[in-house]
Amino acid sequence: MNEIKEAGIQITTVCTHTCPSFCDPVTKDGIQEWIKADPDLDECITKERNVMDSIHQKLVDDGHPIKEWIYGHYHRHNMQDIFGVKYMMLGAVVYDGGNVDWCEIRN
After folding, report:
1. Count of H helices and E strands in the chain?
2. Cis (ω within 30 of 0) for the bond into 25?
């Protein structure tokens, strides 16, 4: 990320599998059965979201004009504006021929 900053590249769109901890979902409600099945999952999820928090903070500290952050992982749809950034959770229902959200990214 330091090389990106030094090169003068400005990041406006971030695409990740998961998201910072302040984005939806902000609780682990609904995954208790998964956590029971995998005792390490709770800690793994927390670490994963903390990494996203660190990436977010680095981008902010480096002055990147982030406009949107696109993520999936949770298999449902949500859009919210936080700190002036549009956070888009793309949904995907992977059974019964389900629905998938799409997002076109343009400069």
Report:
1. 3, 4
2. yes
Range 5-33 burial, b when 16+ CB lie within 10 A, else e? beeeeeeeebebebbbbebebeeeeebee
Q: Are 20 and 90 in contact (CB under 8 A)?
A: no
pLDDT digits (tens, 9 = 90+) for 37-82: 998 999 999 999 999 999 999 999 999 999 999 998 887 889 999 9
**29: Cα separation from own chain's centroid:** 17
The identity of residue 64, as a single letter, is: H
pTM of the model: 0.84
Question: What is the Cα–Cα distance from 1 to 7, expressed in whole angstroms?
Answer: 10
Return d(Cα 99, Cα 20) in angstroms, integer: 25
Strands 13-15 and 78-82: unpaired
